[in-house]
Amino acid sequence: MPVPFQPLSSIGIVGGGQLALMLAEAAAELGISVHIQTPGAGDPAVPRAATVVQGSLDDDRATRLLADRCGAISFENEWMPLERLYPLAEKGVSFIPGLDALAPLITKRGQRQLLDQFHLPCPRWFGLEQVFAVPEPSPVGLLQSQEAPGSPLWRSASPYRPPELEQRPTLPPGFSFPLMAKASRGGYDGKGTVPVADQQALESLLDHVLPSDWILEEMVPFEQELALVACRDRQGNVACWPLVQTHQHQQICDWVVLPAPVNQAVQAFARNVAASLLTGLDYVGVLAIEFFYGPAGLQVNEIAPRTHNSGHVTIEACRCSQFAQQVRIVAGLPMGSTDSRVPGALMVNLLGLEQELSEQEQRERLAALAALPGAHLHWYGKAQAAPGRKLGHLTLVLEGSSSADRQGERDRLLAEVRRIWPLPEAIEPPKNPLE
Questions:
Q1: How many domains does the chain have?
Q2: DSSP 30
Q3: How many whole angstroms separate alpha carbon 71 and alpha carbon 134?
Q4: pLDDT digits (tens, 9 = 90+) for 242-292
Q5: Looking at the domain assignment, is residue 262 inside a domain?
Q6: 374-400 burial by CB neighbour count: b if 16+ within 10 A, else e?
Q7: How many other CB atoms are found less than 10 A from the CB of residue 348?
Q8: Residues 9-64: pLDDT tens digits?
C-alpha cells in the first residue's frame, strides 16, 4: 500500500526577485518556510526568506545546497540550465515543475514546436536558419526525445552560416513580409523581438544574430491581448483563474484587468488550451499563457512556466492567488479556489521613471496611490529604478456589475494612477537585438 504524501513544511525557490518575494509572502501565510537561491544580498525576496543560498541562478552547487534545506524546489523564471539540474533530479532532488515538463517551454522555438504538436493555435512560424534553405528538425522527433542532459528540447541547434556569404536569404513558401523576429531564449518585456519589414531588414538582422537562435513569425492582427493563468497539482487536477486583458506600453505590461471583456466561449477556449498543455506535458505548478485575440480568434503568443505579471491581480481579486497556489502545489497541499471574490479588478504596474525620485517624493507618491479607493499597493524594494523597470504594482478593486461599468471605473482609476505615477515616456530599446 503506497505511503500517503506528507505536505512539506519548507520549499525552495531559485530566484530572489519580486515573484520570489510574493511567493515567500504567500508561503508565510500558510506557515511554510521558504529558502531561496539568489546572487544578490539585496534582492527583494531576501528579507522574507528563512535562509538564503547566495549564488547565481545557474550555479548547480548552490542549488544542491538549497535542496538540502527543503523538500522541493521551484523556479522564479524559466531560464534555467536544465543540463545542470538533471543530475540533481536523478539523485532525488524534487523540482516543481518537473524538468521534462519545463524542457519544451524554456525556448520560443520549443514552445512553437509543442503548440504545433498539440494542434493548438499560434502564429505561423519558421526557424530563421530556414531562409538559407536549411531543413528544420522534426518537431515530433524533438518532443519525443527524453535524452537529458543535452536534450534538443532546450538546447539551441548548432549555429549555421551559409557556405557562400553572397547567398541571398529567401523566405520559405507561404510567408511574406512583414514578419516578427523573436530570440528563442531569454526575451521578455520587449527584449529579443525585432520587426522585420522587408528584405533589407531581414539581411540586417542576419548580420547581428545567429539564425539558429531566432524564429520568425507572421504578424497577427489582434484587437486585444489576453492572458490566462492556470495550474495543475500533483494529482493531475487542473484549475484556471479568470481570463484577463493586458495592455502594453512600449512592449512592457502597463495594466491588467480582470475579468477580460470577452464572451464565455472565448474564456472556455482559453481554458481548454491551458488544460491541453498542462495535461499533455504532465506539468505540475502554475503556468501562464499570453494570447492574441482578433479576427482569427485566440492565438497563443507565449507560455510562461511560472507565476506571471498578469496574475498579480489574483492576490486581491481571487480566493486563492497564483502565488499561494504555487506554494500549495509545491508543498503538496490541496489547491485553493481560483474563483473571483470581487466583481473585477485593475492591476497597474509601477515602472521606473526617467528621473529618479528622492526618497521623500517616492514616499509621498506611494502614499497617494495607497489612498485611492479600493487600492492595494505592492512595492518590491528594488535597489535600482531604471526607466521601465517594474518597481511595484497597484491593484484596485472594481465594483461595477457590468463590463461597461467596470471599463468606466478602469479608465477613471487609471487616469488617477497615472496622474500620481506617470508612465515613462521613452524606454530606450536595446541597441543590440540580442540584448
A1: 1
A2: T
A3: 45
A4: 999 999 999 899 999 999 999 999 999 999 999 999 999 999 999 999 999
A5: no
A6: ebbbbbbebeebebbbbbbbbbbbbee
A7: 28
A8: 999 999 999 999 999 999 999 999 999 999 999 999 999 999 999 999 999 999 99
Does 91 map to a domain? yes
How far apart, in whole angstroms, are the C-alpha atoms of residue 82 and residue 87? Answer: 9
Question: What residues contact 138, with CB distance under 8 A and at least 6 apart?
Answer: none
Record the cell numbers describing residue 354, joined without a space. Answer: 526617467
What is the per-residue DSSP string for 226-266? EEEEEEE-TT--EEEPPPEEEEEETTEEEEEEES-SS-HHH
The DSSP call for residue 152 is T
What DSSP letter does each residue of 183-201 carry, written as one string?
A: ESSS--TTTTEEEE-SHHH
Distance between CA atoms of residues 344 and 411, nearest Å: 13
Residue 353 lies in a domain: no
Angle at 108 between CA 202 and CA 67, to 5 degrees: 145
Reported pTM = 0.90
Quote the domain boundaries for residue 52: 1-95
55 inside domain: yes
Residue-wise pLDDT for 292-314, tens only, equals 999 999 999 999 999 999 999 99
Distance in angstroms (rounded) separating the CA atoms of residues 5 and 12: 18
- Tell me how far apart the terminal alpha carbons of the chain are, to the nearest angstrom: 53
Return the C-alpha cell found at 306.
511560472
Q: How far apart are CA 346 and CA 254, in angstroms?
A: 11
CATH code, 24:
3.40.50.20
Contacts of 279 (CB under 8 A, 6+ apart): 232, 236, 238
